[in-house]
Automatic annotation (TrEMBL):
The chain crosses the membrane at residues 14-34, 46-65, 77-95, 116-135, 147-175, 187-207, 276-295, 307-335, 341-362. It comes from Fluviispira sanaruensis. It comes from the Bacteria. One of its GO terms (biological process) is regulation of cell shape. This is Rod shape-determining protein RodA.
Length: 373
């Protein structure tokens, strides 16, 4: 009875709307993965994804239920150091995949530390601003802590090279920074620096294949059998879905192996081909509901740390959703960004569910502070 009472107290104030929406997307993703990988013939990836979901659920429970938000804040620096060490390890002796060293292999376990970097950056940026409560308005100079915190993992990920994930780290942290009051001159200076960095990156940093992706994005027909192939086949799959789709397991692009990466980056293409416009609207509605609920949690938060963590998590799902869907529709370069909860992948699934755990921790803290009055 005592144990049940303790568990009941732990699960008070849970954001059931966010949890329900998340697992609705996960279940649809599993259903789609079964078709995309032809699991009736080879079910390995399907059952692997179930394992990833269970591990991610345990991670969400750990961060959201069994740890208090203050404990998460205290552990943030240690987590940041560990992630940076893992990223450095990948750059030194990581395993290659699709031309980039993105995997850290420890025995039978394969990890993608760049995914964990997104999670820890959310916490670290929120924690760094929480330590600066005396600032009414921030200048570019006063943001040096946040810039350094983001710059280190960004550069380590960029060196792999993984431009898509590195850009997501910048976007997520940038959204968090954008929610605090920053001087207009500082924003203008930052904009000039960003444009200058883009020009320098194009000329001195980007690899030829990355430049080709950008050029092919502008015109996929420049390389229809090379870097433009993914975009063209994806657009064909989405367009052939029509209003109601071709039916479960009946998509020709996926079934006949024309569509590459149909279980990961282009999982949405399979869904669009098989379930059409109506199915796409359903999935877009669920993602929109999830993201809106997370930002509402940020709006209700009682302190700056909770609010910035929620904003970061909202940005995590928002940018993954926008970039992946845009990539699938051919309006954004193919940069290897998965659709959270929907694409196949262990490290990303665990990271995404851990982010939901952070929102759970924020909402539970708010609930407890409200009921204590």
């Amino acid at each position: 009875m005592i144990l049940l009472s303790l568990l009941r107290d732990k699960f008070k104030g849970m954001p059931w709307g966010i949890i329900t929406t998340s697992y609705a997307i996960i279940l649809i993703g599993l259903y789609n993965l079964y078709s995309a990988t032809n699991a009736t013939v080879n079910s390995m990836r399907f059952y692997d994804q179930i394992t990833f979901i269970l591990l991610g659920t345990l991670a969400a429970l750990f961060w959201g239920v069994f740890l208090e938000l203050k404990s998460i804040e205290r552990l943030s620096l240690l987590g940041y150091i560990l992630v940076c060490i893992m990223l450095l390890s990948v750059d030194i002796f990581g395993r290659s995949a699709k031309g980039a060293e993105r995997w850290l292999v420890i025995g039978p376990i394969r990890l993608q530390p760049s995914e964990f970097a997104k999670f820890i950056i959310i916490i670290m940026v929120a924690q760094s601003f929480n330590m600066m409560k005396g600032f009414a308005e921030f200048s570019l100079l006063s943001l040096w802590r946040q810039i350094l915190l983001v710059a280190l993992p960004f550069l380590l990920i960029l060196a792999q090279p993984d431009l898509g994930t590195a850009s997501l780290v910048l976007l997520i942290s940038g959204l968090q920074i954008a929610t605090v009051k920053v001087r207009g001159k500082s924003i203008l200076t930052l904009l000039i620096i960003t444009i200058s960095c883009i020009i320098l990156a194009w000329n001195f940093v980007l690899y030829d294949y990355q430049k080709q992706r950008v050029l092919t994005f502008i015109n996929p027909m420049l390389d229809p059998r090379g870097s433009g192939y993914h975009s063209i086949q994806s657009m064909i799959a989405v367009g052939s879905g029509g209003l109601w789709g071709q039916g479960f397991g009946q998509g020709t692009q996926a079934r006949l192996n024309f569509l590459p990466e149909r279980h990961t980056d282009f999982a949405f293409s399979v869904w669009a081909e098989e379930h059409g416009f109506v199915g796409c609207i359903l999935l877009i509605f669920l993602f929109s509901a999830l993201i809106i609920q997370i930002f509402q949690t940020a709006d209700r938060a009682r302190d700056s740390f909770s609010a910035l963590v929620s904003v970061g998590v909202g940005g995590f799902f928002l940018f993954h959703f926008i970039i992946n869907i845009s990539m699938v529709l051919g309006v954004f370069p193919v940069v290897g960004v998965p659709l959270s909860f929907f694409s196949y992948g262990g490290t990303h699934m665990i990271t995404a569910l851990s982010c939901i755990g952070l929102v759970v921790a924020v909402e539970r803290k708010r609930h407890l502070s409200t009921t204590s009055f």
